[in-house]
Amino acid sequence: MILRRFTKHINDQNWFAVGLDVIVVMVGIFFGLQVQSWNEGRLERAEEHQYLGRLHDDITSSISRNTGNVEFLKRQGNYTRIMLDDLSKCQMALDHAYIFANGLFSLGKLLPPALSRTVMDELNATGKTLIIRSVELRSALAEHEVYLNETVIIDDKIVLRTMPHIIKIDNKFVFNLSGLNLAMTI
Fold first, then answer.
1. Looking at the DSSP assignment, which residues form a beta bridge with residue 178?
2. Three-class SS of residue 174?
3. DSSP-derived secondary structure for 10-52
4. Which residues in 12-171 belong to E strands, given as ranges?
5. Which of 10, 117, 143, 173 is the most exposed place for a label (fewest CB within 10 A)?
6. How far apart are CA 114 and CA 81, in angstroms?
7. How many other CB atoms sit within 10 Å of the CB of residue 79?
8. Residue 161 burial (CB count, 10 A)
9. What is the C-alpha separation between 166 and 173, in angstroms, rounded?
10. What is the DSSP letter of 115?
């Protein structure tokens, strides 16, 4: 319909109407592109919101898991301290049998930090890190990723260095905690 009218105006040499038709088409294209751009921006913001929520969940999960690990390590540290105190006195109280064995068993073992990084890895793999509008947040995430990578490397090196010693000790000692009697065999 517009094309037919446009052709009629050209044939009639009605240049005002031709110009008006061209302006109407250009305005229509402009508004169409603006609506498309607005819609893409809206979808991008929704995706950003989803990623931020998932990042929050990852960080909350890491904090929760590490809080549990810290509590476990504190208990193990107390067991080890009691075990070392008993060893320094060359005497062990009967109610320390479990604590002594647990302290000896956990000596030299560690729990590396539990770090959830699923969403960060996904953002990097898909190249969508720029979907996060906040420059400060993107910078903090990049610094956090460097920290995570360094932590994993350091923890792996510590585990590799301590593992042979732990395996040797675990293979030498057999712990038997039946009742209150503690038997260690070498």
1. 181
2. strand
3. HHTT-HHHHHHHHHHHHHHHHHHHHHHHHHHHHHHHHHHHHHH
4. none
5. 143
6. 25
7. 21
8. 9
9. 11
10. -
Q: What is the Cα–Cα distance from 62 to 68, expressed in whole angstroms?
A: 10
Question: How many other CB atoms are found less than 10 A from the CB of residue 186?
Answer: 5
What letter represents residue 41's amino acid? G
Separation CA 37–CA 24 (nearest Å): 20
Do 177 and 101 contact (CB within 8 A), yes or no? yes
Expressed in percent and rounded to 5, the helix, strand and coil fractions of the chain are 80, 5, 15
CA–CA separation, 5 and 9 (whole Å): 6
Compute the residue count for the chain: 186
Residue 183 has pLDDT above 60, yes or no: no
127's tokens: 């190249």
* Distance (Å) of CA 72 to CA 98, 103, 127: 16, 12, 38
Is it the case that residue 154 has pLDDT exceeding 90? no
Task: Let me know: does 116 contact 59? Beta carbons within 8 Å.
Answer: yes
Distance CA 48, CA 58 (A): 15
Tokens linked to 76: 């193990």
